[in-house]
Amino acid sequence: MTLLKICGVTNQRDAVMASKYADYIGMIVHSTVPTPRLVDRSKAKEIINAVRGVRTVGVVEGLDMASAIKLVGELGFDVVQYHGNATITKEIIDLLNQFGGARLAPAVAYVGDDSIIDRALEMTSRSYIEYVLIDAPKVGFRTYEHGLKIPLSVVMKVGGIPRVGVAGGINTGNISIVARFRPYLVDVSSGVERALDLRMRSW
């Protein structure tokens, strides 16, 4: 079964509604790329406390990995989704353990090289990895078939691979196409922000 992550949640009401459909609720807590979905620390804590039955994901871009883990761990998230150079050291593993065994979800950007799939697969072998997300670059991305920001061929190749998810331009109009190939996880954000009550599990 494909898991669903709804990301970029900014308030308790949407978080509670999304938790009826999602396996993961994501909040952007640091980003150097301008986004209206950035939440501050107090709001992040409010949302974490409001949801039940889902795993919470703190999304970080623009920090080194150690700082990202400290930020997300201190806020009480279950998972650190890290956009950046995911170099794993003993310090990183120790930090994850320090915050109650928080787990890491590296996000790797697709820039036209399918070898990214092998890289994602290698990372999933590590016990502290929650999932690896193949995503589009935050700036300078291309648009592919069905409005996706990663090629459908990449979605097809990762279909059925444990703990490798996909993101990038997935919305209510194309999620059924993506889900047809059974990726481990589908990550949606702006593509469903006006339709959180949208029959998300109809696919």
Question: Helices and strands, in N-to-C order?
Answer: EHEHEHEHEHEHEHE
- Main beta sheet, described? 8 strands, parallel, barrel
Report the average pLDDT across residues: 92
Strand element count:
8
* Shape verdict: globular
Question: Can you walk me through this structure?
Answer:
- By secondary structure, this protein is an alpha/beta fold.
- It is 28% helix and 21% strand.
- The chain contains 7 helices and 8 strands; from the N terminus they run E-H-E-H-E-H-E-H-E-H-E-H-E-H-E.
- The chain has helices spanning 12-18, 41-50, 65-75, 90-98, 116-123, 152-158, 175-179; strands spanning 3-6, 24-30, 55-61, 79-83, 103-109, 132-135, 164-167, 185-188.
- An 8-stranded parallel barrel has the order 1-2-3-4-5-6-7-8.
- Helix 3 (65-75) runs parallel beside helix 4.
- It is globular and about 40 Å long.
- Residues 196-200 have low confidence and may be disordered.
What labels describe this entry?
203 residues, alpha/beta
Concise description?
With 203 residues, the chain is of the alpha/beta class. The protein has 7 helices and 8 strands; from the N terminus they run E-H-E-H-E-H-E-H-E-H-E-H-E-H-E. It has helices spanning 12-18, 41-50, 65-75, 90-98, 116-123, 152-158, 175-179; strands spanning 3-6, 24-30, 55-61, 79-83, 103-109, 132-135, 164-167, 185-188.
